Amino acid sequence: MADATPLYDTYARAPLRFERGEGVWLIAEDGTRYLDFAAGVAVNSLGHAHPHLVSALKEQADKVWHLSNLYEVPGQESLSRRLTEATFADKVFFTNSGAEALECAIKTARRYHFAKGQPEKFHIITFEGAFHGRTLATIAAGGQEKYLEGFGPKAPGFYQVPFGDMGALKTAISEETAAILIEPIQGEGGIRTVPNEFLQELRALCDEYGLLLVLDEVQSGVGRTGKLFAHEWSGISPDIMAVAKGIGGGFPLGACLATAEAASGMVTGTHGSTYGGNPLAMAVGNAVLDVILADGFLQHVRDVSLVFRQGLASLADRFPDVIEEIRGEGLMLGIKAKVPSADLLKAIRAERLLAVPAGENVIRLLPPLVTSAEEAREGLARLERAAEQLTVERRQASA
Questions:
Q1: pTM of the complete model
Q2: Residue ranges of domains in the chain, CATH in brackets
Q3: Is 70 exceeded by the pLDDT of residue 1?
Q4: Counting CB atoms within 10 angstroms of each CB, which of 135, 255, 317, 370 has the fewest?
């Protein structure tokens, strides 16, 4: 009997089909409008069909789509310069995805020590609950059994320690340790924020032991927390950072950023990408930064975040049988549920609101950064109705 679909059966897709988007809204084929607080899992940073992004993509599409890195690509020069001017970094390598950005970050860290005459230093310490991608190296970095199962031996060189356990981290450091890799906020892991003090300790520890600090800001970066990158709240700088999702505003784009010292081992021929840094992606990436870096934009993110945090705190107080805890920073928010998170997600979707599941029984709210205070309040009203419905159902079930 033939399969119902020729697609791989690797996704449990919701039975929703969208034909167009407008700002923070998605419109289904039947015309139903959904408030999109999933944003393609934090990808659609400027919402749907943002006129500046659409214009940049159309303009570039009329010129040239692809060149490869056999030639100079002017868009790469401009976007890399803007990224380095706005961050700790001196060097940028462009990719097509977050997983590729992490692969580049891992290779950069290992190659650095190799070039220094220490090839034995290739181990990277990561944290339980992390998610760094779906390639063989990045699932090994994440270390979660559900992603590793069935894909053969775990790629060597990765060692996980408990989240937030500085003692275990210090014990794990050896002569083979090259770097520490961490997400400032674990996304898939349940919107678990790393305290600023812990990141500061990590920076000091890396300096003490000659290790590289690698940050995964694929989900938390590009304005998502109200700063350009989440680590800025702690006042520290990494040596290497992986970026993706929001930097392309919906177009596949990632980047690995590094200091000149950290990238010193990545010489000609050590890494490459056919599509990475293509003219279409560069045009959109530059257009995203036009908006994100404009005066007042990040303040807008912080202001709207405050509306969300106050509203979510009120909902948590009023519906303690449904909501256990509110997590996150900026517009990277999590609702840890008392009920099964799948039930909460179903109730939210019934109110024509889209969100994203995560670990630890958490539902993520990742609204576009252009969300207005009015749209935030509309989303909160829909969340309230979902929580009310679940409360009624629980009371009926226990009666």
A1: 0.96
A2: 51-292 (3.40.640.10), 295-325+338-346+356-399 (no CATH)
A3: no
A4: 317
